[in-house]
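Blinded run. Sample ID left blank on purpose so nobody reads anything into the name before looking at the predicted structure. Input follows.
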Amino acid sequence: MRSPDQHRERIERFLAGLELSDELGRLDEVVRYALAGGGKRIRPVLCLATTEAAGGDPDQALGAAAAIELVHSFSLVHDDLPALDDDEQRRGRPTVHVRYGEAQAILAGDALLNEAFALALGYDGPHVGRELALATSGMIGGQYLDINGSRQDRMELNRLKTARLFEASVGCGLWIVGIPVAEQEDWREFGAEFGVLYQVVDDLLDDDGLVKERGRPATLELAASTEARAREKLDAIDADTSVLAGLIGELAARVQQSSV
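Blinded prediction complete.
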């Protein structure tokens, strides 16, 4: 089994060599700037690790994993726009609209999403593309709740805006291996719980979101219970899920970091 770092190295190489549509012209530079913004590539790593845990070749999932990262990058570019979060920096760099202008940022986000579906549609059958489309709709729905102040149920917002793409990361891996729908439930529930945990940890590190609404002790309790549910779902799967458990461990370590 490959380690998370090995999966990260593989997806980074794949993204670096990714061929974008010639029709994008000079927008190619803007798209690549958005895609090269760093981060842990946790969503594509989750896709690759799921594929291997389910008995498949993770290299066959590289296209789907890259598509997931492109969708994530699209969401960040658009979230940063003045009409939404109006952020000027992301991961220590100027956001796309600050570096290249608002119009080019909008187009780059559109291009990232379109290129993602070009990759997803490279697989036989509609499953990977449909998985990604439904997850994207969920993310858009979550963003709509966010910008319209509908935060009465923060967990539902997080389920849509954040956790939905994590679940899809798992789902794409399952489709590539050919896992029947009847056998996907525990895998998918793990992905959803992992996504919720990811957002809870982010809120703890940023002292924002759930921490502001519920307080740090209650949010720490939520992190612990969500981690326990994610591990429980993995334990119910008849496969070597040790690498996926390691990814949970990475998030748990960040929870400890937030308490220092």
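Unblinding after everyone has recorded impressions. The domain at 4-259 is CATH 1.10.600.10 (Farnesyl Diphosphate Synthase).
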